[in-house]
C-alpha cells in the first residue's frame, strides 16, 4: 500500500488522474489540493470535491491554493475546469461527504504529511509551487516524504511552451514557476520526473476516443470520453493545443510502474531569461529519475480498466 498526496492544476488530465487514483486498490490517498495554474482554481477545487463524492466512498476535503506563477497559462486551457465542474454526471444529488478544506494547499500538505504514520508519495501534476512553499514553511516535511512524482520537465530540444520571449525549450509546468522547480531540486528528496519524452508517446487520438465510445456502457469509461471531448486530439500533426495524457501517465506510473522506462541523470533548471523552465543535464545538477518511455497500449488498457471499476 502506498500513501499518496495529490496536488494538481485542474486540467482535464489532472481531474481524470484524480478519478483514476480513487480507483487504485493499493493507493491510500490522504490529501488532494488544486492550484490555479492550468485552470481557474475555484472550478478545479469544486470539480475535485464532486469527483471524490461521486466516484469514491472516502471522505477527503480538497484544499485550494492561492499561489501565483511567473508565467500564466493560456486562458482557453484554463477554462476546461469550468466545463468539467458543470458536467451533469458530477452534479447529480449524492451524499456530500467531502467539501472544500479551510486550509490553503500548502498548509494542507504540511498537515497531512506531518500527521501521516507512513512516508508519503507526493504526486504533482502541475507546477511545484505548493510543494516548494510547504518545504519553505515547514522543512521537516522533507523527511516524511518518500518521493516526489512530478509531471514536468524535458531534456528534449523542443518543450511544449510556445510563448513570446521564450525559446520553446521548456515544459509548461516547469515554465509556470521555475523557482519552485529549483527549490524542490535543492532538497534531497528522490524525484521521479515524468518528462515529455514519455508523455509525447501518449497523445489523445481518434482511435482511443472510439474505444471509449464503444465501452460507454461503463459509467467510468463514459466519463473519460466526455472529459476528453473537451480537448483537441492528434489528427494530422502536433500543434500547440494537441492534447496528450501527460498527467494520467504520471498517475498510472504510481499505480503500475512496470508501464514505463526510466534513466538517472543529473539535472539543473534555468530560472531566468528566454529558456526559463528548461531542465538540462549538468554535472552540478542533482540526480533525477527521468521517466522517458512507456508501453503505450499497456497504459491505455490500464487506465480504461481502472475506469471500469466504478
Ligand atoms: O505540460 C503539460 C501539463 C500537464 O500537467 N499541462 C497539461 C497537463 O495537465 C500544460 C499544457 C501543455 N500543453 C497543453 C497544456 C495544452 N495543449 N492544453 C492544455 N494544457
Ligand atoms: Ca496538469
Automatic annotation (TrEMBL):
One of its GO terms (molecular function) is hydrolase activity. It holds the Pfam family IU_nuc_hydro. Keywords: Glycosidase, Hydrolase. InterPro entries: Inosine/uridine_hydrolase_dom, IUNH, Ribo_hydro-like. Residues 4-301 form the Inosine/uridine-preferring nucleoside hydrolase domain. Gene3D superfamilies: Ribonucleoside hydrolase-like (3.90.245.10). Transmembrane segments: none annotated. The keyword Hydrolase applies. PANTHER family: INOSINE-ADENOSINE-GUANOSINE-NUCLEOSIDE HYDROLASE (PTHR12304:SF46), INOSINE-URIDINE PREFERRING NUCLEOSIDE HYDROLASE (PTHR12304). This is Nucleoside hydrolase.
Amino acid at each position: 500500500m502506498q500513501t499518496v498526496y495529490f496536488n494538481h492544476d485542474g486540467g482535464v488530465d489532472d481531474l481524470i488522474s484524480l478519478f483514476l487514483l480513487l480507483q487504485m486498490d493499493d493507493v491510500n490517498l490522504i490529501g488532494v489540493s488544486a492550484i490555479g495554474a492550468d485552470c481557474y482554481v475555484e472550478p478545479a477545487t469544486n470539480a475535485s470535491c464532486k469527483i471524490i463524492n461521486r466516484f469514491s466512498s472516502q471522505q477527503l476535503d480538497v484544499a485550494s491554493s492561492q499561489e501565483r506563477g511567473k508565467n500564466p497559462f493560456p486562458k482557453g486551457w484554463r477554462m476546461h475546469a469550468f466545463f468539467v465542474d458543470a458536467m451533469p454526471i458530477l452534479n447529480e444529488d449524492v451524499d456530500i461527504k467531502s467539501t472544500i478544506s479551510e486550509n490553503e494547499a500548502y498548509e494542507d500538505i504540511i498537515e497531512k504529511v506531518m500527521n501521516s504514520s507512513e512516508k508519503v508519495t507526493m504526486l504533482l501534476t502541475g507546477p511545484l509551487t505548493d510543494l516548494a512553499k510547504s518545504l519553505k514553511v515547514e522543512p521537516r516535511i522533507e523527511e516524511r516524504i518518500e518521493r516526489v512524482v512530478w509531471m514536468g520537465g524535458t531534456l528534449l530540444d523542443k518543450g511544449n511552451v510556445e510563448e513570446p520571449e521564450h525559446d520553446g525549450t521548456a515544459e509548461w509546468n516547469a515554465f509556470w514557476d521555475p523557482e519552485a522547480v529549483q527549490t524542490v531540486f535543492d532538497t534531497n528528496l528522490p524525484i521521479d520526473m515524468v518528462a515529455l519524452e514519455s508523455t509525447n508517446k501518449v497523445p489523445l487520438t481518434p482511435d482511443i476516443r472510439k474505444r471509449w465510445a464503444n465501452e460507454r456502457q461503463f459509467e467510468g469509461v463514459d466519463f473519460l470520453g466526455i472529459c476528453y471531448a473537451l480537448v483537441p486530439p492528434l489528427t494530422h500533426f502536433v500543434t500547440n493545443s494537441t492534447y496528450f495524457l501527460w498527467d494520467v501517465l504520471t498517475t498510472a506510473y504510481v499505480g503500475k510502474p512496470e508501464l514505463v522506462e526510466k534513466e538517472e541523470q543529473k539535472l539543473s533548471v534555468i530560472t531566468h531569461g528566454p529558456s526559463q523552465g528548461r531542465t538540462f543535464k549538468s554535472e552540478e545538477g542533482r540526480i533525477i529519475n527521468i521517466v522517458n518511455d512507456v508501453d503505450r497500449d499497456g497504459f491505455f488498457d490500464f487506465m480504461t480498466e481502472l475506469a471500469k471499476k466504478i
